[in-house]
Design brief:
This is Peptidoglycan DD-metalloendopeptidase family protein. The relative contact order is 0.10. It contains 6 helices and 14 strands. Strands 3, 6, 7, 8, 9, 10, 11, 12, 13 and 14 form a 10-stranded antiparallel β-sheet that branches. Helix content is 40%, strand content 22%.
C-alpha cells in the first residue's frame, strides 16, 4: 500500500495531504521505467558478455567439434598425399624403368583445373577459405589418383606383353617368410657390426637358421659361384634385362656356374661365412650394375599388409649383420 505524504500548511497551520498533478505522476512513472530499462540493459549486456546462453554453448561445442574434424581431415589428406607420392615415385623410378616406359611428366600429374571458378558456390559461406582449401586438395588428389590409375592400366598391358621379362625380374623373397627369425636389416645407411661406423648397406639381411634354403628370385643363369671377401660363400645370378642378384654368407652351394635356374629354384643354404655376425642371408639386387633397394621387388609373394610390415622394419636405421 502506497504511503500517504503530508505537508504543513503555514496558512492554515494544519497538516494536509500532498496531492500530485497528473503531469508529475507521469514524469515519475517515466523516470521509474527509464531507470528500470537502463538497469535491465546493463544486466543483459553483462550477462551476454560474461555468460554464454544455452544456444551459444551448443554452437561453441559444434564449432570445436568441426575444428577437430577439420584437423583430422587435414591429417588424413597429408597421409593420402604421402601414399600417392610414394606410388608416383615407384611408378616413375621402378615400374616404368622395369618396363622401359617413359615417366609421366610432373605437369601432367600436377595439372590444375582450368576454366571457370570451380569453387564459386562455396565463397558465400562462413569459413569459405577453409572449405575451398580442403576441396581443392581433394580435387588435386582425385586427379593424381586418376592419372596413376591410367598409368597402372598402361603398365598392365606392358606386363601381358613381357611375360618372359617378368619371369626374369627378381620378384620374391630369397628366403621363405616362415623360416625368418624376424630380424631384418634393410637397404641404406646402417651401423656396421664389426667396424661400428655408419656405412652404406647395399642389400637386405634376412636372419634364418643355418641350412635354410635360399631361392632364386627370378629366372636367369648362375654367373658366379664361390667365395668373395666380406661376402663369404656367394652366388650371383644374371637375370638379363640389366638385372642381377647376389646371395651371400651361404653355408653351402647347390647351384653351379653356368646353370640355368627358374624363380623358386634352390641355389644354396643360409650360413655364417665371411664378415658375418650371425646366420643370415645378405641379398642384393642390381640394375645396370648399380645396387637398388631389394624391398621394391617382393611384390609376388607378400600381401599389402605383409609388405607394409616389412617396409616398416627394413626402414629402421639399425645395425646390419655384415
Amino acid at each position: 500500500m502506497a504511503k500517504t505524504k503530508y505537508y504543513f500548511n503555514t496558512q492554515t497551520l494544519k497538516y494536509e495531504k500532498v496531492r500530485l498533478s497528473l503531469g508529475i505522476k507521469v514524469l515519475k512513472a517515466l523516470g521509474f521505467i527509464s531507470t528500470a530499462l537502463v538497469f535491465s540493459f546493463i544486466i543483459i549486456a553483462f550477462a551476454y558478455t560474461f555468460f554464454d546462453s544455452p544456444k551459444e554453448k551448443q554452437l561453441k561445442r559444434e564449432i570445436n567439434q568441426l575444428s577437430l574434424q577439420y584437423e583430422i581431415l587435414q591429417d588424413r589428406l597429408k597421409q593420402l598425399n604421402a601414399v600417392v607420392d610414394d606410388l608416383q615415385e615407384r611408378d616413375d623410378n621402378i615400374y616404368r624403368v622395369i618396363f622401359e616406359a617413359e615417366p609421366i611428366p610432373k605437369e601432367v600429374r600436377n595439372a590444375g583445373f582450368g576454366g571457370i571458378n570451380r569453387y564459386k558456390n562455396l565463397e558465400n559461406y562462413d569459413y569459405a577459405n577453409l572449405m575451398i582449401e580442403a576441396t581443392k586438395k581433394v580435387d588435386i588428389l582425385s586427379k593424381q589418383l586418376y592419372v596413376q590409375s591410367k598409368s597402372y592400366d598402361e603398365l598392365a598391358k606392358a606386363v601381358n606383353s613381357k611375360e618372359k621379362m617378368m619371369a626374369s625380374i627378381p620378384a620374391v623373397q630369397p628366403v621363405d617368410s616362415r623360416k625368418l627369425r624376424g630380424a631384418i636389416s634393410g637397404f641404406g645407411y646402417r651401423i656396421h657390426p664389426i667396424y661400428k661406423i655408419r656405412k652404406m648397406h647395399e642389400g637386405m639381411d634376412f636372419t634364418a637358421p643355418i641350412g635354410t634354403p635360399i631361392y632364386a628370385t627370378g629366372d636367369g643363369y648362375i654367373a658366379a659361384v664361390g667365395n668373395e671377401r666380406g661376402y663369404g660363400n656367394r652366388v650371383i645370378i644374371s637375370h638379363g634385362y640389366g638385372y642381377s642378384t647376389k646371395y651371400a654368407h651361404m653355408s653351402r652351394f647347390k647351384a653351379k656356374k653356368g646353370q640355368r635356374v627358374k624363380r623358386g629354384d634352390i641355389i644354396g643354404y643360409v650360413g655364417n661365412t665371411g664378415a658375418s655376425t650371425g646366420p643370415h642371408l645378405h641379398y642384393e639386387v642390381y640394375k645396370g650394375g648399380k645396387p637398388i633397394n631389394p624391398i621394391n621387388f617382393f611384390f609376388n609373394d607378400l600381401t599389402p599388409s605383409e609388405y607394409m610390415a616389412m617396409l616398416e622394419v627394413a626402414s629402421r636405421e639399425n645395425q646390419s649383420f655384415d
